[in-house]
Amino acid sequence: MAPLPFDYDDLLRSDLPPAAAPWSGFPRYNFVGGHNDPDSVPVDDLVAAATRVIGREGRSLATYGLSSGALGYRPLREFIAAKLARDAGIECSADEVLITSGSLQGLDLVNQVLLAPGDTVIMEHMTYGGAITRVKRLGVNVVGVALDHDGVVIEALEAILDDLASRGIRPKYLYTIPTVQNPTATVMSKGRREALLALTTARGVPIFEDECYADLVWDGERPQALRGMAGDDRVIHIGSFSKSIAPALRLGYLVAGWPLMSRILSIKNDGGSGALEQMIVAEYCREHFDAHLTLLRSRLRAKLDALMTALREQFGDSAEFEAPPGGIFLWVKLPAAVDTLRLTQAALQAGIAINPGAEWMTDATEGRRRFRVCFAHPPVPMIREGVAALAEVCRREFGMPPRPAAIHR
């Protein structure tokens, strides 16, 4: 017998987000979220890694922290430190790496130790929607800085810092995704990184660097991370295995020096991030990570090519986009007559899920012509079908794009 309902409405906090809807499964054409290619999940190797490491170290599950302490499973932290030194130019010890429950927990932890209501942060004006919502829920003011194909526009940032300084405001940090930016997929150039570090250092503004997609640069050559270039703790760095291995593993990491890390650890009172996941990923990565990334990038690139071809066929010149140098997203701009929030709602009724641009911009009104497509999860035939179905919805709602010539024959 089901329990009788109880009315909590008068007891709820007044600042909660809208209530969640019951889970009803993924839509037929699912182009949202950060899902990845299911055929690239290394199931057999993960099973083998799990068998080995649990057989060897399973008894350590009897203690919180796997006898490695609050920072997380030490072999995984050692792998991350070595990987960051090799690939991102970050020199750090395993004791400067904290394992988190996805990079989102890293975001939350940094915000908890640095931000209070009324504070100000600077973010790229097109950026990760989860970072925007988390900061705003804390009552923090968000200032969006212009972004171009080369990264943060330095002149725009300098003007913002001048304005804030004139009002006695010191921003708590600049949040940036320099390598395979979300949603634009741009990669900040070395020169722009140097200028960004010089300006923020002169103004005493820390940088919060999110590198969750950096492993997915098509040619495998990611630029040196801002933290590596800075060579000190003025840059807080976070990364993730969600996009390189599997989102459901919920494994991320945060890199910071001990003065800040000690404050973060004092509030990370969850008993440690998923222990089995840490053990298995550490065991797997030791032998297979690089080869896996090479295969994953190849499959993602093929899906991106299919998506761009389908958009050109179905939308013609009505859809504007630039071929990204890596990642799992394509950032698309439609004509001024189209409101992508309305398009998103109509598309969902037709079984097509896309992210409206308003969710990925610090100024939602600027995003009404844009939408983000995650191309990693659907197989290529579903990508083609989904884009064709989206074009039909767009024609019905906005009278565009014109039908492809092949359809008229």
Brief summary:
By secondary structure, the protein is of the alpha/beta class.
In words, what does this structure look like?
The structure is a single chain. With 409 residues, this protein is α/β, with parallel strands linked by helices. The protein has 2 domains: 135 residues, Alpha-Beta Complex (Aspartate Aminotransferase, domain 1), CATH 3.90.1150.10; 246 residues, Aspartate Aminotransferase, domain 2. The protein has 12 helices and 14 strands. The strands form 4 sheets. Strands 2-10-9-8-7-3-4 form a 7-stranded mixed β-sheet, sandwiched between helices. A 3-stranded antiparallel β-sheet has the order 11-14-13, covered by helices on one side. Strands 1-12 form a two-stranded parallel ribbon. Helix 1 packs antiparallel against helix 9 and helix 3 packs parallel to helix 4. The longest helix is centred in the last third of the chain and has 41 residues. The radius of gyration is 22 Å and the shape is globular. The termini are far apart.
List keywords for this structure.
globular, 409 residues, Aspartate Aminotransferase, domain 1, Aspartate Aminotransferase, domain 2, 12 helices, 7-stranded mixed sheet
